[in-house]
Design brief:
The protein is an alpha+beta fold. It has 2 domains: about 45 residues, Uridine Diphospho-n-acetylenolpyruvylglucosamine Reductase, domain 2, CATH 3.30.43.10; about 210 residues, Uridine Diphospho-n-acetylenolpyruvylglucosamine Reductase, domain 3 (2-Layer Sandwich), CATH 3.30.465.10. Helices cover about 35% and strands about 25% of the residues. The strands form 4 sheets. A 5-stranded antiparallel sheet has the order 4-5-10-6-7. The protein has a 4-stranded antiparallel sheet with strand order 11-12-13-14, with helices on both faces. It has a 3-stranded parallel sheet with strand order 1-3-2, covered by helices on one side. About 45% of the residues are buried.
């Protein structure tokens, strides 16, 4: 691992300044991806800006019909928070299924979204619930946030401060996990909202995406049977040693049916 300068700012403004001052500075949230990449020599930042000491980035609160979660809130805290379990139980369940106990106690919501791993769980919830990503500069709709493989709408030096999740009528997340990593081979988040059904998929493509055909069917009838006969084209989906694009395409409506059944209880 190469040498670097370490910063631990106490405010978002200080973090942004430190990030801009380094020649190749990186933000450090939970460190679950960045530190491993540094150890492998895949990245060598000039500066690490540790966000752990910024109080305003932590915490969970209700804001009208939305649940607002700070970017540095740990997965374990989301999973265990009474506010989340009451308002959006599907989100708490999703957080509880991320990685292992060590990952859940170190990894953060904002870090996961900024990294945008194609098999991460949180992107499915953010997109499935139609959440709003709040940064130090603006508010970004979930539909505009995920762009491609490890690519988001974040601009250089832009920092996620919180995510606002609308409270759905009902929702559920089901994933077919890779047993060693517990990443989603395919994960499907289904939500019934006042504006209709939303279906978001992770693990199957370069980034999280929605499935309009499933959304249309479930908006008409929110029942597992509504998913019957709907197919997803494998073009553009991931193929790797764990599964082909065709296999992942097959799993999407299967998992959607299971998610709807779980949402209905």
């Amino acid at each position: 691992m190469e040498t670097f300068s370490y910063h631990r700012p106490a405010s978002v403004a200080d973090a942004v300044r430190a990030l801009g001052a380094g020649s190749d500075a990186k933000l450090l949230a939970g460190g679950q991806t960045l530190l491993a990449s540094m150890k492998l020599g895949l990245t060598a930042p000039s500066d690490l800006v540790d966000l752990g000491g910024i109080a305003e980035l932590h915490g969970i609160r209700s804001e009208g019909d939305k649940l607002v979660i700070g970017a540095m809130t740990r997965h374990a805290d989301v999973a265990n928070a009474a506010e989340v379990r009451t308002a959006i139980p599907a989100l708490a369940a999703l957080a509880e299924g991320i990685g292992d106990r060590q990952v859940r106690n170190a990894g953060t919501l904002g870090g996961s979204l900024a990294n945008a791993d194609p098999a991460a769980d949180y992107p499915a919830a953010v997109l499935g619930l139609g959440a709003e990503i709040r940064t130090d500069r603006r508010k970004i709709a979930a539909d505009d946030f995920f762009k491609s493989l490890f690519e988001t709408a974040l601009e250089p030096g832009e920092l996620i401060v919180a995510v606002a999740f609308p409270k759905p009528q009902r929702a559920a997340y089901v994933k077919f996990l890779q047993p060693a990593s517990r990443f989603a081979l395919v994960g499907v988040f289904v939500a019934q909202t006042a504006g209709g059904a939303r279906v978001a998929v992770t693990g199957a493509g370069p980034c999280a995406f929605r499935v309009p055909a499933l959304e249309s069917a479930l908006s008409t009838r929110f029942a597992p049977e509504a998913c019957n006969g709907i197919t997803v084209a494998p073009g553009g989906l991931n193929t790797d040693l764990h599964g082909s694009a065709e296999y992942r395409a097959h799993l999407i409506p299967v998992l959607a049916r299971r998610a709807v059944a779980a949402a209905l209880g």
